[in-house]
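note to self — DONT lose this again. spent like an hour looking for the file last time. sequence + predicted structure for the chain T wanted, 184 res
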Amino acid sequence: MGRGWLGEEWVGCIADVDRRGESGEGDGDMTFRSAAAMVASGSVLALVSCASGPANGFTKHKIFRLDPDNRPVSVDQSLPFEHKRLLYGAVSQADRQARKGNYYTFFWNVADKSRPVELKFEYRQSATGFAVHAQRAELPAKTRTVRFAVIGDEFKRNGSILGWKCTLLQGGVVLDEEKSFLWE
């Protein structure tokens, strides 16, 4: 036998278990070799699916609507945690109300990490109709995450966000775009 990637002893052990299974000594149970093959193929599929993300573009986005007066009740503990984290340090009721609003977090990946990226977040709010508001952020490409917040006076005056679009640019070239269903 040659030296396999599992090592000399393991290759022999797999062959012995496989021979016993084929000779009818088992009760038709799965052999060690077939179980190892299934685990290996499952691992390869999992790695391929993880590695097949976009080379340039958005990977995920999170939306959180913070209302300090209403604590989220959920089986998922990440929602109450996010609520507490955003309100951390807000002592007075005025501080808590100033943080009320919409929080949008975007995650991205770019192949060229030497040049900065620019993110443009455009949105429409309930009280302003079709007027488009925008926020921009220019960050190093290795940051890979940004949070836009529409809170405080802007949220009180113009209302919650109805539709949004976020554009990822690098060197003036559009790499990717994410948008809500209500964006045209």
